[in-house]
């Protein structure tokens, strides 16, 4: 394989000295990009003759090659969030209002909470189907579905429940992991202009409140499925209550772990022993709220 020897840049003699590029060579693989980088460095000035490269080249170098002592490198404002350092938020020229105008709807999160077996996933599916038939774009984040992928590393212990919520909603309270993550993802969907429907137990008030604070303009809509424990146990679609009663599942919500009833939710769907509303009627109740509060624009 033939190789091409290193060639000087098309700057030599007095021209190179004037540009501050004397002695700089271009690697054969650099191509035009390499030339542009060095020329841009010259245009920016501040050629470091001792180090052999300009501040612009230095700033473009890999992290392990940078010299923090050189001036002019840290001009961009960066921050530290959690364990992530030297990061910077980049605004997109297309914002949430633009996306909402395109979709003809307002992005929000419909957060469905309740005991296991209360009908959260059933309501989420019915609501998504109803909104889709009206021409609205939705996405459902179901607690069980998330544990098949994004949250499969989490258990149902209190600390993992907190991480579950944190991952969905960027909650800064780490007592319930699963809910945190659901919130993080849901917030992104709402920012995209979608109506994001989440269905998970999320038993702790502190986690739900933290999720609510992350969304502006009342776009967090908490829906409480108020279904008595005996009704949920009678349904027991996954047989979990029987296992919990037998002591084979520890920390099961409603049995040996608390469910903290919402006190400030937007919608309460009441179910009594011997009579519960149909999935269609529950979905209609939520749709009516969305219409009345301007989330479904014409």
TrEMBL record:
This enzyme's EC code(s): 2.7.1.25
Pfam families reported for this sequence: APS_kinase (PF01583)
Pathway linked to the protein: Sulfur metabolism; hydrogen sulfide biosynthesis; sulfite from sulfate: step 2/3
A GO BP annotation: hydrogen sulfide biosynthetic process
Key words of the record: Amino-acid biosynthesis, ATP-binding, Cysteine biosynthesis, Kinase, Nucleotide-binding, Transferase
A GO-annotated cellular component: cytoplasm
Primary enzyme class: transferase
Entry's Gene Ontology molecular function annotations: adenylylsulfate kinase activity; ATP binding
Gene3D superfamilies xrefs: P-loop containing nucleotide triphosphate hydrolases
APS kinase domain boundaries: 106-172, 178-270
InterPro entries named among the record's database cross-references: APS, APS_kinase_dom, P-loop_NTPase
SUPFAM superfamilies assigned to the protein according to its UniProt record, in alphabetical order: P-loop containing nucleoside triphosphate hydrolases
Catalysis performed (reactions): adenosine 5'-phosphosulfate + ATP = 3'-phosphoadenylyl sulfate + ADP + H(+)
The protein's role, per its UniProt record: Catalyzes the synthesis of activated sulfate.
Homology family: Belongs to the APS kinase family.
Protein name per its UniProtKB record: Adenylyl-sulfate kinase
